[in-house]
Amino acid sequence: MNVMFAAELAQREAKMGSRITAYSVHPGPTASVGGVRYELPKRYQQRLSMTSEQLAKQARQLNIKTTAEAAQAPLWLASVPGSWPGGGAANGAFYLSTPPYTETVYEGPIGWRTKQNATDLWNLSLSLTLPSDTAQDESTM
Length: 141
What we know:
- The protein has 2 domains: 1-27 and 71-141, no CATH class; 31-69, no CATH class.
- By secondary structure, it is mainly alpha-helical.
- The mean pLDDT is 76.
- The two termini are 19 Å apart.
- Helix content is 43%, strand content 6%.
């Protein structure tokens, strides 16, 4: 959903002439505590008691990223001049967390990534976050 939300936010802000940009980034497989809470409850319990050094060792053993490594692409995107308006990063794009980040943008067809689904997600987000007297359908924006 973050992919659709970022694309919709980027499109809406651009329409208004705003300098705000939005992106989504997949961090890749990561040895973190939160990501396995529901999918792998036993591993979640195991990782709760692990130190950062133990998590890093497990990441190496499983050939996945540490949380610090997974954070590199979002940090790059937030700090590189190419992510600013008029720069090299594509506003609203979905980036995979694999260097070099500028060459890993994914814009291929995804069945669920439609304009209608993005609008529906946007409107649902509004209805869940705004007070009921201010929520409105913004499908015409």
